[in-house]
Every structure is written in C-alpha cells, then in structure tokens.
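Page 42, continued from yesterday. The earlier attempt failed because a stray header line got pasted into the input along with the sequence. Redoing it now with the clean sequence only.
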Amino acid sequence: MENKKVPYLCGGTLFFLLVQTKKPRSNARERENGVKDHLTDPEMMEGLIQAITGNYTHANGGSLKKDTSQFRECKINGSTSIPINEQAVISSYDYDIKNNYSIALSRMVKFSEDFLDPSKAAWLVRVLLDMIGQDDIDESTPFFVLRNGSFFSKSDLNGIDRLDFQPFLTGVVHYILTHRTDNISGLPTLDVLGIKKEGQERKAKKDFPFGNSLKVYVDWYTSAEAVTLADEQETGEEQEIEPEYAETEIIDNCSEKVETKTANQSVFINSGNGIQIGVNYGTINLSPQRNTKDS
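This time it went through. Structure tokens are written below.
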C-alpha cells in the first residue's frame, strides 16, 4: 500500500461515515412483518451512484452487494457496479458541478432525504472538516461546498462556522471523484475510524478521533430550496419572492381596546399635528400623547 497517510479522505472512508449517518433502521419485529426500510448498504451505495451520475438503472443485486462491501473496506477502487473511478463518470460530474450545479445539488438533496438522518448531519460535517484539515491536501484545493456552486479552498474551510449540509456533501464527493480515485489507500484510516471483526461489518469506535473539537452550525438543505436555486440559475437572476405579512395588532392603551387589521395596509394616525400615513408591518402601540398647545 503506497499511501499510509491518516486521515485519508476517499470514497471508502466517506461511505463508512455515511453508513454511521443513516436514518434509523426498522426493528426485527417490523422486518418479520415484511417492512422494508430500503436502507441497506447496497441500496445506499446505489443511491449515492445515482446522485453522482443521475443514472437510475439498477445494478445487479449480487454484484452490487459484494462490490459495496469491498469498496466500503477500501479493497477496490471501483467496479462495473460502482463506476466512480471511471474517467467518463468523473468528467461528467465535474462538468455538472461547474456548469449545472443546481442539478447535481438536487440529486444530492434527494440522496440525503432518502438515506440520511438530519440529526446526525452536523456530526458528519464536523468529522469531514477535521479530516480535510488534517489530510495531506493542498491548501489551495477547491471544495465546491456553497449552495450557489462556488467554492472554498481548503484553507478557507479552516475555522468556518456555518455550512449547508447537502452543498457541503456535494463538494466533498466532487473532491473525492476528481482527486482520490485511489480508494485502497484509505484502509489505514478505516482502522482508525472503526473496528473490524472477522465475519462482521466494521463498527465505529466509541472514542471517535475526528470532529470533537470543532463547532460548526449545519443547516439541512431542503428540496424546496434546491428547486428555488435551480429556477434562479435557469433564469440567471434571483426570483422575486412576495413577502408574507402577519396580522397587525393595533393596541390603544387609552381605551384598552384591541383591533386587528390586515398587515401591509396604510395606517392613519392623528397625533394632533396632522395626519401621518405609513405602512405597518408589525404591532403599533397607540399611547396617550400630551398636546403641547394645552400646556
């Protein structure tokens, strides 16, 4: 094995972390009753491939299961079922990120909504940021992690305090495809992340080594936001959104009478010095005002 650098961010190490971020699985009783949650590792791998390629054709079940297991353990760089090391797939995804970002993002949003638990999103981002920071990645390397399709360099990511989850994941996947086709070199990092016992799946260590000291706010990007972004990028300008107004409560402290009027209407106020006209967006308190002429 040529590269024993730890941490080493690659497809296998990312997929192991994604498995830890899955939605809760159905329990044994539900499975006995025929309930399928569609959250198996091969199904998650298929969903990730669809997010990358946009190809929704199903791979052969047996080969995909075997290849997913080997890819997750960094024993292979890719396969016919997992073609993320193929140059055509890499070039196509790179083009989408740089020219059709909203499409790539919408596919990642769907993958996240289908497989991942939003309550674990911040944990995954912190772990990946820590790994990127310690990985032997050039400081100027771009990560396309912003919702508008622009990028931060590795050095820019150091110390960042807020990110959108799905755009961040999209950028990490793009980096792996374009820079880390060598998946096999990730095995030493897997041994740091989890424990592998013979005949069993690798389990994450309780004393997880990355992300513990980082404080990052993570927003869960929604399908509606992805559609809005796609519309904006298609028209080349931001869509004008009509503001929503709440009902306005006008309180007269003199009579303690409360009157509710529809917000965003003209409000006429007689202060004794003429009528003032304004547009109200909130609550107006009308309190007694002493007339200076009476003093």
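Notes: The chain is about 40% helix and 15% strand.
Reminder to self: strip header lines before submitting.
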